[in-house]
Amino acid sequence: MPIDHYPSSSEVREVGPRDGLQNEAPIAVEARIDLVDALSETGLRAIEVGSFVRPDAIPAMAGTDRVLASITRREGVRYRVLVPNLRGAELAVDAGADELEVVVSVSGTHNARNLKMSVDDSVEQIRRVVERAASADVPVEAILATSFGCPYEGAVDPVRVVALAQRLRQAGVTTFSFADTTGMATPLTIVALLDELTAAGWPTDDVALHLHNTRGTGLANLVVAAQRGVRRFDASVGGLGGCPFAPGATGNVPTEDVVHLLDSLGMTTGVDLEALILVALELETVIGRQLPGQVMRAGPWYRLPSA
Amino acid sequence: MPIDHYPSSSEVREVGPRDGLQNEAPIAVEARIDLVDALSETGLRAIEVGSFVRPDAIPAMAGTDRVLASITRREGVRYRVLVPNLRGAELAVDAGADELEVVVSVSGTHNARNLKMSVDDSVEQIRRVVERAASADVPVEAILATSFGCPYEGAVDPVRVVALAQRLRQAGVTTFSFADTTGMATPLTIVALLDELTAAGWPTDDVALHLHNTRGTGLANLVVAAQRGVRRFDASVGGLGGCPFAPGATGNVPTEDVVHLLDSLGMTTGVDLEALILVALELETVIGRQLPGQVMRAGPWYRLPSA
């Protein structure tokens, strides 16, 4: 029964140093540098290093320029940063970021509350970021927040998601991350969006998914997406990063759990899982609390505890 | 793209009062009765109430006869108990259990360490339990432990699992639960066993899966099983129950997360999820620690936190 066909390789994009740390009490820039360097040694090829936002807004991301300046750049690894606007893009390009990320919500309500502007204004902002980045040959990825549901509006129609992605492509964006910002996605809403993208002639090559595990569905969602050919997934070391809408709930899917699952599906990640587990365990001591990752505790299935 | 076809209904079998509590410090019989009664009010149709094992071996299960005697039996709910041997079966039948469960490991090493006997001896034991139960018209389900991997032997060949299930059927067992005892299953090993069962002409009607989330794959495994028609799944309220082979790791998949996912797939559970969440939250206060369930913290996706 050939129900399941999975791609033969995958790319896990690490978001812990930005999306994970941004909700934590600030840690030293040196610790952030050590974290990025340790992650880059595991075989991960894309690492979100930080963001260029106002330090008073997100203190944990202050000093991202120093992180970029001091990390040991490993060949083949793309060091990415999130930028909120043109000024952030200029700082990021000057600091040597390999790729920029911009965010816009499909939900107008979420965009207004999160970014304090309309979706139209966000698209215009992104157009300017793309122009600036293009002049330095730096690609820009758009993160479409609330692609699978909005904590204010509820269900989000996939037609709206595709329409926004098409506007962003016209604005010069080349790759796209569809984000389950507050963990509302389920397997059926994942495939609904992917099928809508396919129907619109969208190339799956530029699709990445940013999944959360807030309701336990993160890896179930990943599997059905992989069955439709998606092979790029965001994840956060140890599962670092919460969900502001659900106190005590988890956010990002843990990188070790994602790597463990993808490799088990034959979707080779190229990541040294045991090395990654050590990074996650070390991060716990830096953060000072237990992280929600499962594989970091139990080890991969083939590591026999009683051998 | 009709990759995914899911059954239109499902049955979630609650195992918290037995499989969950058995690894905890004993709680009062009255608290166990309250738990079973509260669970039976949520729409769950099968509840594992306890086990008839030696109280010195598993103190938390002492008094299961009193639990069975004092619960408020709700029509349509099957109250099930685990029995280790003929003596346990007699006690369980006398105490009024609706269904019995017996355990045998596919892995001889695990069976020897866990049950202190050979697989052959376990099958013989089960034959006698079935005979005794049949005389009282009580059905017996076999739980095939380590169906997806053994912490001592590693990978387990699905051919061995099917062969053992066939022996048990000849011994009179009518329904079967394939257990991922230590959370080693991945989507590919799940489908490998299901395909082997199908190839052997096995009716999927009598297949249940007992999944663990020890490595984060619990619900991903559930989804691929559901794509192949499996509709009966064990789960533990709040995710109660650890994994003895991985300290700090989680064990059973949380019932709320399973119900939330199954309902989202259109596999109607008939369970009142909000009522179930309240039971899980109350259980935390009884147990005195945070449980790993996600939906109990975040609420279902359609419950908007900011509405």
Which two chains form the greatest contact, residue counts included? A-B, 59 and 59 residues
Structural class call of chain A reads: alpha/beta
Number of domains of chain A: 1
CATH topology-level name of chain A: TIM Barrel
- Principal-axis shape of chain A equals globular
CATH superfamily name of chain A? Aldolase class I
Strand order within the widest beta sheet of chain A:
7-6-5-4-3-2-1-8
Mean pLDDT score of chain A: 95
CATH architectural type of chain A: Alpha-Beta Barrel
Name the poorly predicted regions of chain A: none
The largest sheet of chain A is: 8 strands, parallel
Q: What is the helix fraction of residues of chain A, given as a range?
A: 25-40%
SS field, number of helical segments of chain A:
12
Order of helices and strands of chain A: EHHEHEHEHHEHEHEHEHHH
The quaternary structure here is homodimer
Report how far apart the termini of chain A are.
35 Å
Q: What's the Cα radius of gyration of chain A?
A: 18 Å
CATH level-1 class of chain A: Alpha Beta
Number of strands of chain A: 8
Approximate strand percentage of chain A: 5-15%
